[in-house]
Design a protein that fits this description.
Blueprint (H helix, E strand, L loop, with lengths): L1 E6 L5 E5 L4 H10 L7 E4 L5 H12 L3 E6 L2 E5 L7 E2 L1 H4 L9 H8 L1 E5 L12 H9 L3 E5 L2 E5 L7 E3 L8 H11 L5 E5 L5 H12 L3 E3 L5 E5 L7 E4 L4 H13 L3 E5 L7 H10 L2 E5 L2 E5 L9 E2 L11 H8 L5 E5 L9 H7 L4 E4 L2 E5 L8 E3 L3 H13 L3 E5 L2 H4 L5 H7 L3 E6 L2
Parallel strand pairs: 2-15, 3-14, 6-7, 10-11, 18-19, 22-23
Antiparallel strand pairs: 1-23, 1-24, 3-5, 4-5, 7-9, 8-9, 11-13, 12-13, 15-17, 16-17, 19-21, 20-21
Helix pairs in contact: 1-2, 1-7, 4-6, 5-6, 6-7, 8-10, 8-12, 10-12
The structure holds ligand EPZ.
């Protein structure tokens, strides 16, 4: 296990290249199960989660090869295997994305239930409801979801739950519907850019989908899909994390290969905090000089403020001039970072699904523990600006979703090192 050792106080300045989107790449890799032909996917980041999905596709008889630094080729291989085992699924919840493609292409799927997660309860009832609506027999047995159907049939499906739409639920149902007989209408579909990108990837494979980017997706089933070549969108959460890195260090960063149009809600909040964010040539730029202003932030499904940037935003607001209120509407328990930020002298109180952040003038370096991917990123951001040394332990969480984050940060002036930990 590694840890990061960070000396706070450097102002970040310079250009950072944003990698391809993890959460768009993962379902596309799963979608490759829908065809017998190879799928070439470009702009895929080198991350632990991508390796886990490669292992799952291998367990399902296929193969994933990196043909260059950012390109992978997914080949189906032996198509008789339908089991995604617990050892792999428990490493990463996005593994559940193989459920829809396996069912549609191989008539049966046996996917381990992912189990608990540090960011809270993460049910998959919407995935199951959607696939049942398409005519599949879906049940849970010995810790596995089993789904079976000879041929799926198009249907009208309302895919909303208590917390709104589901990103990977929409992915699963949309992927399954591409090979169903007739038309499927998904109401309250997730509109996230990663879902839009997956829909376009499926179109490149020959699927017929309309309403992309809206909450009403219409999928006309086709007999078969073919291979394709496709380039993944930039990772909006990595880009957002670097916007917060620029803001918290009162720096000046230029993010190359970032999409401002995917970050509207974040930019709106940053503007209210007093941070300049703007497009300049090929880069999204962030410049900050003054102490952040306190603001209220509520996480919501896209195009609202993303839950995956809530922790990073909290790190910034912990230094705000005043009191900020941050409310989680997606994962009400996603606040593991509060106690760790408080170890760094922040003053944050959690009340239900809300955190009240009383801004302090400075943070103080400490030993802290990463609990999940985005919480780890928040601790790194806090470490960049805290007085003295911060040690962030268990950085394997961060390696799941950020490509070479310490190298990218060092290149723009951060003093951060990766060291082995006991
Ligand atoms: C995706 O997870 C992302 N993962 C998550 O990113 C992200 O936090 C989340 O969407 C929300 O944006 C991938 O794309 C691989 P959901 P997902 O189903 O699809 C409830 C990261 O850090 N719900 O959209 O699993 C659920 O409990 C990760 O990169 C049901 O009630 O999330 C939550 O409250 C973490 N029933 C809400 O819906 C279901 O069947 C949204 O979850 C499914 C979800």
């Amino acid at each position: 296990m590694d840890k990061f050792v960070i000396e706070g106080g450097s102002r970040l300045e310079g250009r950072v290249t944003i990698s391809g989107s993890k959460n768009a790449s993962l379902p596309m890799m799963a979608a490759s199960i829908l065809t017998d032909e190879p799928c070439i996917i470009r702009n895929v980041p080198r991350l632990a989660d991508i390796r886990t999905m490669s292992d799952i596709l291998a367990a399902l008889g296929g193969g994933v090869e990196r043909t260059d630094e950012t390109t992978i080729e997914c080949r189906p291989g032996d198509t008789s295997e339908v089991t995604a085992p617990y050892e792999l699924v428990s490493r990463m919840r996005a593994s559940v994305c193989v459920l829809g493609p396996l069912l549609a292409r191989r008539k049966k799927a046996r996917v381990s239930l992912p189990g608990g997660c540090v960011i809270g309860l993460r049910p998959i009832d919407l995935h199951m409801k959607g696939l049942r609506s398409l005519g599949a027999n879906v049940y849970v047995e010995h810790g596995y979801i089993i789904a079976e159907a000879d041929r799926l049939k198009g249907a009208e499906i309302y895919l909303g739950g208590a917390f709104g739409s589901s990103v990977t639920g929409t992915a699963n149902v949309m992927m399954a519907a591409t090979l169903a007989e007739g038309r499927t209408v998904i109401e309250n579909a997730a509109c996230e850019p990663e879902i839009q990108d997956l829909a376009r990837f499926l179109e490149a494979m020959g699927a017929r989908i309309s309403g992309i980017g809206t909450p009403r997706l219409v999928v006309e089933g086709v007999e078969e899909l073919g291979g394709c070549e496709y380039e993944v969108i930039p990772d909006r959460i990595e880009a957002g994390t670097f916007l917060f890195a620029g803001a918290i260090t009162r720096g000046d960063l230029h993010l190359v290969n970032a999409r401002l149009d995917h970050l509207r809600a974040v930019v709106d909040r940053l503007h209210r905090i007093g941070i300049a964010v703007y497009q300049k040539g090929d880069a999204v730029c962030v410049t900050a000089q003054d102490r952040p202003r306190a603001v209220d932030v509520t996480t919501l499904p896209y195009p609202g403020f993303p839950t995956d940037l809530q922790a990073q935003c909290m790190a910034l607001l912990s230094l705000g001039d005043g009191i900020s209120v941050l409310t989680e509407k997606i994962y009400p328990d996603r606040f593991m970072h509060v106690a760790e930020l408080n170890r760094m002298a922040a003053n944050i109180r959690k009340e239900g699904a809300t955190s009240i952040i009383i801004g302090v003038p400075e943070l103080s370096g400490a030993q802290v523990m990463a609990s999940d991917l985005r919480a780890s990123a928040a601790l790194v951001l806090a470490g960049l600006v805290a007085k003295g040394t911060t040690e962030v332990r268990r950085v394997y969480h961060i390696d799941r979703g950020y490509e070479r984050i310490e190298e990218k940060l060092r290149a723009v002036g951060a003093r951060i090192e990766r060291l082995p930990d006991k």
